[in-house]
């Protein structure tokens, strides 16, 4: 569990640090370097679910605390930190609740079902808060679309990389001990 939490928190912080570095993509707009890293967080968070909601929300809170330190010590703009914080709290909470309702389903159904809610919500909230007024509406639309596609692709690759064996990550009555 600690490994998944560490990867999640590191990915959030790296994504914030690189949120303003954009790469043009040929078919669907722009994507920030941070998005390519952030896509990992959706599946890492889903892996922590087997330890219960408390573990997931603790991990999200730790990432939020890290974001404040990141802004203070690395100069990440507050508009990025604020956008990230709001988007993470709302989209990750929605994802957590959807995922918990899908616990009886197979791994890939749980991941896909929760990501269908959280990825578009996260992309809309983050980009509208961080970049409204910074980019023209057409550019902002291209960024949001590109980020949704990139997050789904990255999340899917991470989910498929290690598809849990049958019986793994199944619902539990109480959080597992370390």
How does this model look, in words?
This protein is mainly alpha-helical and 178 residues long. It has a single domain (2-161), classed as Arp2/3 complex 21 kDa subunit ARPC3, CATH 1.10.1760. The chain is built from six helices and two strands. Strands 1-2 form a two-stranded antiparallel sheet. A hairpin with a 3-residue loop joins β1 (22-25) and β2. α1 runs antiparallel to α2 (33-48). Mean pLDDT is 83; it is low at 169-178.
Layout: helices, strands, pairs:
Layout: H1 2-17, E1 22-25, E2 29-32, H2 33-48, H3 53-74, H4 78-101, H5 107-131, H6 137-161
Antiparallel strand pairs: 1-2
Mean pLDDT: 83
Level-1 CATH class name = Mainly Alpha
Largest sheet: 2 strands, antiparallel
CATH topology: Arp2/3 complex 21 kDa subunit ARPC3
Helix/strand-derived class?
Answer: mainly alpha
How many beta-strand segments?
2
Oligomer state equals single chain
Question: Count the helices. How many?
Answer: 6
Net shape: globular
- Taking all Cα atoms into account, the compactness measure Rg is 16 Å
| SSE order, one letter for each helix or strand | HEEHHHHH
* Range of helix content: over 70%
């Amino acid at each position: 569990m600690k490994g998944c939490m560490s990867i999640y928190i590191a990915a959030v912080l790296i994504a914030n640090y690189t949120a303003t570095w954009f790469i043009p993509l040929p078919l669907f707009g722009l994507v920030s370097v941070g998005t390519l890293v952030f896509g990992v967080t959706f599946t890492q968070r889903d892996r922590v679910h087997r330890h219960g909601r408390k573990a997931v929300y603790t991990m999200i809170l730790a990432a939020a605390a890290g974001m404040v330190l990141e802004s203070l010590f690395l100069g990440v703009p507050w508009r990025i930190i604020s956008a990230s914080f709001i988007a993470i709290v709302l989209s990750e909470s929605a994802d957590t609740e959807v995922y918990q309702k899908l616990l009886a389903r197979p791994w890939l159904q749980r991941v896909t079902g929760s990501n269908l809610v959280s990825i578009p919500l996260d992309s809309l909230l983050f980009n509208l808060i961080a970049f409204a007024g910074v980019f023209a509406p057409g550019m902002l639309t291209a960024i949001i679309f590109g980020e949704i596609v990139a997050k789904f692709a990255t999340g899917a690759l991470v989910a498929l990389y290690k598809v849990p064996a049958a019986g793994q990550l199944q619902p539990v009555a109480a959080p597992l001990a370390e």
